[in-house]
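Handout, page 2. Input:
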Amino acid sequence: MIPGTSLHSHPDLSMIYSVIRMSISIRNVIITMNSVQCRMARTALQITTIELATLSKVAPSTVARLEAGERLQPRTVEAIRTALEKAGIEFLAADDGGPGVRLRKARRKGK
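Output:
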């Protein structure tokens, strides 16, 4: 590379940079919870769609749409997943025999 030039201005590297940037963006957008996992997690916690919506700060219809298998914005799915994790759910990856969910073990006080 010529000193004083940027990666963006070099014609051969510009396309490579775009592909790398797009790959990183795609990785960040991967949805990490499916509709079945959401229903299983909610059932394990014994909460309603309205209660999950309140915890997630989304509309109840949004939770219902996710559980029906509709594609939602990644940040919305992440908000629901985060709320479930804070409530005690662990998400299992496909390589853990899943995908699935389980309740997190309760921590003992003082440990």
